[in-house]
Amino acid sequence: MVQVSDQAWRVFHWTCFGIHRTRPGSRALMPLPSSPRAPLARTTLLKMGGRIGVIIALSTLFSYLHMLHTLRTKALAQLQQHVTERSAREQAIFVLAEDNHAFLKKALEERIRALEREDVSARFDRLFVRLPDGTVRSRPELVDGSREVQGFIAPHVVIDAGFRARFMAAYDVLTWYGRALSVRFNTIYINLMEGAIVGFWPWAPSWAQQASSDFSITDYEDYALTQPKNNPERKTIWTGIYLENVSHAWMASVGTPVDVDGQHVASIGHDVLLDEFMHRTVNDHLPGAYNIIFREDGQLIAHPDLKLEGVTTPYNIPHAAEQPAANRLGSKENAAHLRDIFERVKNRAPDQTLLELPEYDEYIAVMRLKGPGWYLATVLPESMVTQPAFAAARYVLLLGLLSLLVELIIMYRVLQQQISRPLENLTQATDKVAAGDFKVALDTARHDELGQLARAFQLMADEVQRREEALRQSNENLEQRVEERTREIKELHTQWLQTARRAGMAEIATNVLHNVGNVLNSVYTSAQLAKDRMAEMRVDHVGRVARMLEERQSDLTTFLTQDARGRHLMPFLDKLGKNLHEEREQIISLLDDVGRYTEHIGDIVKVQQNYARTPRLHEQVTLEQLVEDALRINAAGLTRHQVKVVRDLASLPPVMTDKHKTLMILVNLVSNAKYALDTVAPGERLLTVKLEQVSTDRFRIGIHDNGMGIAPEMLIRIFQHGFTTRADGHGFGLHASALAAQEMGGSLTVHSEGLGRGATFTLELPYHPVLPQQAA
Q: Which CATH superfamily is domain 91-273 in?
């Protein structure tokens, strides 16, 4: 459905339904107040653009998450594949070395057994010579070290027939196969356990002549590793990396023990140069990743940050802090990072090749190289996965925003042409109608919602014009009707004032009669008690005593001392006097109460008179005494109803308040509580009066009874004028009391748990302590 601007709808509605606001005699309608208008097309585009933008943002987020998952899966698969392929390539040289050793071991054993039956002394002496330093070396004039095998025998070695046979057997085997094997290995040698070595070193053709006389093969790790005590399984074993002292190149050696007839006689060895291996490990890696190689005991073989210049010992990962060159990785952070990688690899499951290092946001693919058993690990930062995903998501977002911009431009042109301009014409038409010009021309030929709206508006303008003509005619008689109605209202107002004045007078009279009635009950009760006391006085006893004394006047002394009745006459007169005195005091007290009640009646009348004049002034009041006065006024009724009164009155300093209004309220509350207790058994009727100060500026008086209670639906009506729950009640007392409490700035409230559960009326008034000058 086509959207229509709010102003257009307001004008349409006002024009159709607001014509009654035209003043009599006016031809023009009241114009609408002008306010800034936002173009509909722009507002619509902003709303639609915002919603579409949210959709694009959500789509971009989901795309990013999907691409992140896809790229992570692909990257990890590629990482595993890279490590698998890389390990297969790098371990080939080690596997080949072990295969060579197996072949050479078999050939050496066969050659040793063959030469043990021959005399090789002449050939030995022709090829080797003992030098003045005691060593036996290849003859330099006969040997081209770059193409032939060289030999070195330490001075301490005993050269016997068996040794010559084993030495020449090693020489023959290397002569036959050394050159072929040197294509892949720079060094091929055989160690004889007595302390001799035979080798093919094309890269060091004069090695046998340059070796020092104290050179010993026992100083090398591969010699010790092939000993039976260190290699009981008699398998091929690899050394760690070391810096060779002649070539000054980093290499690793592999040794295979050779046993003949159960005796360890020799070991076959290869030296694998590691410079190219290390360089390839550091520089040939996946984009953004890096490779490291380390041995199981933590010896580091290759690392991008490892510095080997000027050092002779390898770097050990677990013991980096104990090494003199602990900073060979560039920083302590790099060393700690490498240590965490090492620990993670060491603690992995045997078949686990892909690891995660969350504290560094890295993935690690690891494989163990066959042969030396070194770990090849490739470390890939997670950023190499998230960055492509973020970049792709950014392109998606940019393309989405660009598409949104193009769509908004197209939509803007369409909205402006199809909706904004027709609505603008409709708005201009509403302004003309509001100004009183009903001649409008709109495009009613359209068959959409705007065309329907234009036709409806045209019909509305014609109808409004017709109604305005009718209204102008009816307005001519409007003033006369208004004057007549005004006179009627004035007369009704006068009658209402008279009625209100009579109602006010009646309410005042009712309040006076109700409050006076409460006090008159106490006056009547006190007068009746005084009458009863007077009736019970033993005045006739005085006359009888007087007649008796008059009869005995002649012998009064004898009568009072000797007659039985005379002796009792004086004690009787004493008791009679005391009794008459007590009766007189009680009658005087009852008459005092009548006087106070009469005074209170006068005060009630004065309070009601003050409604028509200025408010009554506050006077100094002792609250505890005021509560006692209210109970004393109702004392006769409470006694007659057998009500037990419990007092919980706090001793408060005198306050300034309207004494007689407060007393009137308390008298009403106590009187109502008395009647509420009629439904309770006489021995259980209980009235509790509590006086307390609730704050520094408020005090509270609570009247609680355990009588009939109040139903919940009656609580909201209890203070209404004329509402009562008693058959003989009038409903004036609580209404007047609530009004009096409000006039004094306080409140009168009621609480009841329901019928049969008693009620509590609470009077809360301002606490105005007596100031020193007021007390004076």
A: PAS domain (3.30.450.20)
